[in-house]
Amino acid sequence: MEVTSVQGVAGGVQHVLCGPSSPISSLSILSPTLWRSARAKNSHLCCVTTRVAEAPNNGSNSAPKRHSKHYLARQSAIVQVQDSSDLLSALTRLGGSLTVQDLNAIIRHLGTKKRWHDLSQLFEWMLQNEKVSASSYSSYIKFMGKSLNPVKALEIYNNIQDESTKKNVHICNSVLGSLIRSGKFDVSFKLFDQMKQNGLTPDAVTYSTLLAGCSKLKNGYNKALEFVQELQRNELQMDSVIYGTLLAVCASNNKLEEAEGYFKKMKDEGHSPNVYHYSSLLNAYSMRGNYKEADALVQDMKSAGLVPNKVILTTLLKVYVRGGLFEKSRELLGELEALGYAEEEMPYCLLMDALAKAGRIHEAKLVFHEMKEKSVRSDGYSYSIMISAFCRGGLVEDAKQLAKDFEGTHDRYDLVMLNTMICAYCRAGDMDSVMEMMRKMDELKITPDYNTFHILIKYFCKEKLYLLAYQTMEDMHKKGHQPDEELCSSLMFLLGKIRAYSEAYSVYNMLRYSKRTMCKALHEKILHVLVAGQLLRDAYVVVKDNAGLISKPAIKKFATAFMKLGNINLINDVLKAVDASGCKIDQGLFQMAISRYVSLPERKDMLFQMLQWMPGQGYVADSATRNLILKNSHLFGRQQIAEILSKQHMISKASKSREKEKRV
Predict the structure, then answer these.
(1) Which positions does the entry assign to PPR repeats (predicted)?
(2) CA atoms of 474 and 460, how far apart (whole Å)
(3) pLDDT digit string (tens) for 327-359?
(4) In terms of pTM, does the model score above 0.85?
(5) d(CA 350, CA 147)
(6) How high is the pLDDT of residue 61?
(7) What is the mean pLDDT of the chain?
(8) Ramachandran bin of 586, using left for φ above 0, alpha for ψ from -120 to 50, beta for the remaining angles
(9) Rounded distance, CA 180 to CA 176, Å?
(10) S-S: 312 plus which of 168, 308, 361, 423, CB 3.0-4.6 Å?
(11) How far is CA 377 from CA 251, 260, 586, 605, in A?
């Protein structure tokens, strides 16, 4: 198993709000967007504090401000609505006395408490009673993003009628943030383009939000570069948040040199790097195991007065294991333990995974047992690493036993763990345990991914359960996963062997209509399967669409089978397709076609069309073919047959004469 990068750990490092020396102590770290939000709040609080401090002092201790009855009534109404178990009833009674600002405060309260249903009821009421502002939309959409309900957020945004409200930058940022948080990156990028067309003027927060999405995209660096160039064209300044997000994008896309460039540029522009920036660059070093540069970076960080925290040290451990420095990794793991930073399994997992992939399974096993003896909290990733390592090393029984141990000690499963256990049981040939894991997946409502299907299909093929493998691939296709070409090719052949011809053709079509580029040999491979199963109409489609990719012997074999048993209405079309492929049609094929028409005289028009088509393509009926036609001419009309054959002979004679003249 590939241990997930500490990007997930380092990628969310808590941003320092009040200067480079602020402490950061947790792996529950803020994203750049949240940092910006927190920074804004912090700035707002500072402003409030300043205003209070600068208030005139009249030289006497003034009494606390007395609020009006109206104000106190409103505050009471806010609390009653917030605490009500029947929100709509409370709004009916008290909503008329509340201002938009009051209702916005209730939105924030309900959102903070994650009372999503009440929050939606409140916002719908506000819309119906026309008590909404830009802040209402922005806050509600932001909370819909936090509840991972981007569809609702997008629906609310699309239903905004007022143009100025719809292009409000805070509302747009909330919508984009909601989509990014939910992993709808492509949708967010397209919507951003649409927003600009509708008059949005993006700000730095907009670009920071979009860049955060790029860090989670495969090959997201190029997209991030587009946003940076656009930001610069709009004369917006790159701040430390944007630089931090860019460093995370570079790290996740293995762009080390670019990350170093942005880090230097940020410092040159006067921005002081904080722990988030250092951890992101460190993570970039970890991708290649650049331990010398990593050590120098940590030393630079210490010189700047920053203390390496759990994230930094864990990422440094990742650098060491990627660089193959196992002894140094053990020393750093000991340091993490001494600081209380190894209470969870991640540091151990990094070392175990690297040892296992280096073929040092026994050492990885010792680290695993050490972790268990120290009662380190585990979510199952350590088990997943060791089960995968045992499987790779051919220690199938050990993998199976460890999977059983996990089942006995853990009641929590995720997709990665279930896939690992399914793989172990498949390797061991334990069908009952495989089926039990699939039932557990259903019970826990965990959706299988590409890896799940791939593991199962390979296993069912190994056990010669080819139809079950086909059903699994069909389910995989319906779930939107593109099948692997090699696996499809193998399954097509195996289904053909058990005479499941239509299923084999279905697998071919799954691959054909996917976005993958197909191997040329697959077209001929399925053609042989279809001809063997006498699915000649489907075989004709394959030849017609891919004639240039199929060998002439295979096409001739197909044509012969079709002339014998194919749909008589398609015989002429097949002959044309064969000729178009560059494969010369011999008299034997024509005689077979004529024999089919003789057996069904009412198709004489098709015979006439074939005979009229032949000379134009350089074909003429030889004596044996002419005799066959004349022998049965009473079935088609002697005079008409004689005229067609005579015309064919004249065309052929003229053609030969022209060729002779050319040679002379």
Answers:
(1) 168-202, 203-238, 239-273, 274-308, 344-378, 379-409, 414-448, 449-483
(2) 14
(3) 999 999 999 999 999 999 999 999 999 999 999
(4) no
(5) 32
(6) 55
(7) 85
(8) beta
(9) 6
(10) 308
(11) 28, 35, 76, 81
